[in-house]
Design brief:
two-stranded antiparallel ribbon; elongated; about 10% strand; Rossmann fold; 3 domains; Helix Hairpins; about 625 residues; 28 helices; seven-stranded mixed β-sheet; alpha/beta
């Protein structure tokens, strides 16, 4: 059985998917696009269920690429049941999407999630009455606690077995008359349309460009007829009709018994979103996250590296002197560094990032820094890709598609590659924090923010277009279930284990073999054009080259190229800062370059590479002079 999860953003859809799928989920792209969706297979009550989690969608009539692809999936793919999830505390708004989904004439289940939030607001919903009106099963859930999910699957099985497609709700009589006339006209023109006629007729009246190509010819008279009756554009007529229907249904099946009292979250927001204290808390929260990662990483790194170093001597005895031993030692150092150097910093970072996401704090960060983003010439929505960039640059670049204008997408995509991702964070913490102290690492982050802000301000001067304001939905605070948090951490850690770790091993082996053959000297001389102006040891040339594959490689290759883990034996603090600032800003990893190429085209991707190299050189030389 194949089921599709769809709902408006922040309705808890992904939480339900995570409970059902756990870490056994895969991420796929819609064909021919960079828009992603998640899918998983699991067994329940003896039946295998294929679950697809579509991107959050406010409606089926949106210009947003992700929402357009979700609609295309619903219209073209084979599946058994639609599971529509909505926020029960915002029932009227959520039902607008439900009314559109009913027009697809597919078996369907409605899930009223976040019932605890509805109850807090004093809202009581009669789900049996709502089920009777819509003609589909209605289930109440509290997803983050896992409540009601078994009942949800039982309802899905019932919807499939009994083919419960629901009752499309009628609009006003005069609107329905015109919809019927359009349907009759479509029937006369073609019998080969695979889209439900009512759904297609409504979309044509809404002037949906994608459907106008299918059968929009000769329908202008119907749209004008509708517009004359209501004295408004036809798409606004349909939208207002749907909105009124949704609100009427919501009012008919729900009651507000008590006036909601301010919650703990509301009181917390009085401080965290305060125009002055909000920024103070923001700084302290991120300082706390940074110091926690640093202290934990430093505490774990020393004993782990000591343990693996002692084992290396024992294992090396089994290999004869020469190239074979060099290969083994390189591979072993890559493997052990992944555990001893990378994981102590990466694990706490991923864990704390997941806590910030699932608690609902990150959207509040976006709200706080929105005005700052506009001052540097970027759209407020650019905050979200920048926040994602601290985890990984690839999804951060891809997230720029949420921006409406090409100008905002291009500028944000280029600037987001300058944000120190988790891989570059490992380099910053493993070199600067460990050897020079956390104050120097904070200085690197501060410099990074200043450079991004100045770059945004300079780039925006070339465009006269003014960016619109930010409309952002802020979810309620949640206590993230540790089970889901650990699964999310594991889901993100798999990329390091499956991609970065093997590259660490292979890259370390290659460098060790090059050193054995004395070929690295030649490559290092080639890269003197980089290392010499920065005042860096010549041995770091190959390190910077291999770092383009994965930034984690830079840290490991540095130790291996210098022949010591104590970097300060061969480099001055000024050289360490110059090296780390160069690594922070120069060409992003190959995966990020591919994403950038795909999102903004090869011309802007090449310009972005050139710009990052310029900034990296400038900051590296400046660090050499200042520190």
């Amino acid at each position: 059985m194949k089921i599709v999860l769809i709902g408006q953003p922040n309705c808890g859809k992904s939480t339900i998917f995570n409970h059902l799928a756990g870490y056994k989920a895969i991420t796929s792209n819609f064909p021919g696009t960079t828009v992603k969706f998640h899918e998983s297979r699991f067994r329940l009550k003896g039946e295998e269920i294929h679950c697809v989690d579509l991107p959050g969608s406010y409606s089926l009539n949106s210009p947003e690429p992700a929402e357009r692809e979700a609609r295309r999936f619903l219209l073209t793919q084979e599946y058994d049941v639609i599971v529509n999830i909505l926020d029960a505390s915002l029932l009227g708004r959520g039902l607008e999407l439900t009314l559109e989904l009913l027009e697809l004439e597919k078996p369907m289940v409605l899930v009223l999630n976040m019932m605890d939030e509805a109850e807090r607001k004093g809202i009581v919903i009669d789900e049996k009455k709502l089920s009777q009106i819509l003609g589909i099963p209605v289930v109440k859930t509290i997803a983050y606690k896992g409540q009601g999910l078994t009942e949800m699957i039982e309802a899905v099985m019932k919807a499939k077995a009994e083919n419960l497609k629901g009752n499309p709700i009628s609009f006003s009589r005069d609107v329905e008359e015109i919809i019927s006339e359009v349907m009759e006209d479509l029937k006369r023109k073609s019998n080969a349309i695979n889209i439900p006629l009512r759904f297609l007729a409504i979309k044509l009246l809404e002037r949906d460009e994608e459907f106008l190509k299918l059968g929009g010819d000769g329908l202008e008279e119907f749209r004008k007829k509708l517009e004359r009756r209501h004295e408004r554009p036809s798409d606004l007529v349909i939208a207002s009709e749907r909105h009124a229907l949704a609100m009427n249904i919501a009012e008919g099946v729900s009651k507000v018994l008590t006036v909601p009292k301010p919650s703990i979250g509301d009181r917390v927001d009085d401080w965290l979103l305060h125009p002055i204290f909000g920024y103070v808390f923001l700084i302290f929260i991120f300082l706390g996250v940074f110091m926690t990662i640093f202290q934990l990483g430093k505490f774990l790194e020393e004993p782990l590296i000591g343990f693996f170093d002692s084992l290396e001597e024992s294992f090396s005895r089994f290999f004869p002197e020469g190239g074979l031993r060099a290969l083994f030692q390189g591979a072993y150092q890559g493997f052990s560094s992944g555990i001893g150097i990378v994981l102590p910093y990466l694990l706490p970072f991923l864990f704390l990032l997941s806590l910030l996401e699932d608690s609902g704090y990150l959207p509040r960060v976006a709200f706080l820094v929105d005005s700052f983003m506009h001052k540097i010439g970027l759209h407020g929505k650019s905050v979200l890709p920048f926040v994602l960039g601290y985890g990984c640059s690839v999804p951060a670049v891809m997230a720029t598609r949420i921006l409406e204008s090409e100008r905002d997408r291009v500028l944000t995509a280029i600037l987001v590659t300058l944000v120190p991702c988790s891989a570059r964070m490992i380099v910053i913490l493993g070199l600067v924090s460990y050897f020079l102290g956390p104050f120097y690492a904070l200085t690197v982050y501060f410099i990074n923010l200043v450079v991004i802000a100045l770059s945004g301000a300079i780039f925006s001067k070339f465009y006269k277009e003014v960016t619109p304001g930010l409309i952002l939905e802020v979810p309620p605070y949640r206590f993230p279930p540790l089970k889901i948090t650990f699964k999310k951490v594991w889901f993100r850690l798999r990329e390091f284990i499956g991609i970065a770790w093997p590259l660490l091993v292979v890259g370390s082996s290659v460098l060790a073999f090059l050193q054995h053959l004395r070929l690295e000297d030649f490559l290092n001389k080639v890269f003197l054009c980089i290392t010499y102006p920065l005042g860096l040891p010549q041995e770091l040339g190959v390190t910077l080259l291999l770092g383009i594959l994965r930034k984690e490689l830079t840290l490991l290759m540095t130790f291996q190229a210098l022949g010591t883990r104590n970097v300060l034996e061969v480099m001055t603090p000024s050289q360490v800062m110059s090296f780390v600032l160069f690594v922070t800003f120069y060409v992003p990893c190959v995966a990020t370059l591919a994403a950038l190429w795909k999102e903004v085209g090869y011309r802007w991707a090449l310009k972005g590479i050139g710009f990052s190299l310029f900034v990296a050189f400038f900051m590296g030389i400046l660090a050499r002079l200042v520190f």
